[in-house]
Design brief:
The protein is of the alpha/beta class. It has 12 helices and 7 strands.
C-alpha cells in the first residue's frame, strides 16, 4: 500500500492550502484528498468547538496508520505522492515519526514573516468561528505572561527547522519563503516540481485564492459557509472540483481584507526579532523586511 514520498510541513498561513491544490492538479502528483491529516503530529491541539458547541472530527488528526494509508488508495501511476499538514513543522515529535515510517521522504517548508503570519492566523480563526476576535494586544500580553499562545509560538522558526535538520539530511529538506511563492507562484511550483522529480512543464492555474484571511462582511453568510465547509470536507474527494471552488469564491467575496496596525506589528516584531536574526544566519537569506513596521 503506497505512502507519501513527500510532505509539505507548513507553516500555517504560508500558502499550504494553495500549494496542496496546485500540486494536486499536476498529472504526475497525487495529493491526499484530505488536506492536513496531521498523522505525524502526535501533539495536536484539542478539537476546536464548532459554533454550535460540538467538536468536529475533521479538526482531529488521522489517528491510525490504516486510516492514513487509506488516504493514498487512489494512487495509480503518479510519481510523487504527498500531503500537506502545516502542523508538522512546529511539532517536536513529527520529525522522528516521519523518519521512522518514510525516511526517504522529501520535505518542503514555507516560512512567512512571523508578525504577518500571526495576524493572518488570528483572522482565519475568527472567520472560521473558532475564536472570538481577540486583539493582537491580548495575545501578546498572554505570551509575555508566560502562557503558551499557539498563534505566536509557531512563529519561532529556528528551533523548528533545527529539529527537522537533525532528523533529515539537507538534500531532503527544502526551505522557502512565502515571498518567493507570492512573487512568482508559477516559478515557485516549477522549482517544487524539479525537487519532486516530476515534469516542470506543468503550469498551475493560480487565479484561485485559497484560505484568505480578513473580517466577514456578513456574519450570517460566514456561518452558513462554515457549515457548508464542514459538510463538504468529508465528501470532498467525491465532489466535482467546481463545487468546492464555488464555495471558496463565495467565501472570498464575503471577506474584507484587513491589515495589522503598525503598533501591533511593531510589538510582534520585538517578540520575534531574535529568532528572525538567527533565521537570517541559518538560511543565508535577507530577512530585513520582516523587521520593518
Amino acid at each position: 500500500m503506497p505512502l507519501p514520498n513527500f510532505l509539505i510541513l507548513g507553516t500555517y498561513k504560508a500558502g499550504t492550502t494553495a500549494l496542496h491544490h496546485y500540486l494536486a492538479a499536476h498529472p504526475e502528483i497525487y495529493m491526499s484528498p484530505r488536506k492536513g491529516p496531521r498523522y505525524f503530529a502526535v501533539d495536536p491541539q484539542p478539537a476546536r468547538p464548532n459554533p454550535n458547541g460540538k467538536a468536529s472530527r475533521w479538526d482531529q488528526p488521522v489517528a491510525t496508520l490504516e486510516e492514513y494509508q487509506a488516504l493514498f488508495d487512489g494512487v495509480t501511476t503518479e510519481r510523487a505522492i504527498g500531503e500537506a499538514s502545516p502542523a508538522y513543522l512546529s511539532s517536536p515529535t513529527a520529525p522522528a515519526r516521519v523518519q521512522a515510517l518514510i525516511p526517504e521522504a522529501k520535505l518542503i517548508a514555507v516560512l512567512r514573516d512571523p508578525a504577518a503570519r500571526a495576524f493572518s492566523h488570528l483572522m482565519m480563526n475568527y472567520v472560521r468561528g473558532r475564536d472570538s476576535r481577540s486583539p493582537v494586544e491580548d495575545l501578546i500580553t498572554r505570551h509575555q505572561a508566560g502562557e503558551a499562545v499557539r498563534i505566536i509560538d509557531v512563529g519561532f522558526y529556528v528551533p523548528q527547522i533545527e529539529c527537522w535538520r537533525a532528523a533529515f539530511p539537507a538534500e531532503q529538506l527544502r526551505i522557502y519563503l512565502y515571498e518567493d511563492f507570492t512573487r512568482d507562484p508559477v516559478e515557485f511550483i516549477r522549482q517544487l516540481c524539479e525537487f519532486l522529480e516530476v515534469s516542470t512543464q506543468y503550469v498551475p492555474d493560480t487565479s484561485m485564492r485559497y484560505n484568505i484571511s480578513g473580517v466577514p462582511k456578513s456574519q450570517v453568510l460566514n456561518q452558513a459557509i462554515n457549515a457548508g465547509r464542514r459538510v463538504a470536507l468529508p465528501i470532498l474527494p467525491r465532489l466535482p472540483r467546481g463545487v468546492y471552488d464555488s464555495l471558496v469564491k463565495v467565501r472570498n467575496l464575503n471577506i474584507d481584507r484587513t491589515t495589522i496596525t503598525p503598533e501591533d506589528r511593531a510589538a510582534l516584531i520585538e517578540i520575534y526579532r531574535p529568532d528572525i536574526l538567527a533565521l537570517q544566519e541559518l538560511l543565508g537569506r535577507d530577512l530585513s523586511k520582516w523587521l520593518r513596521t
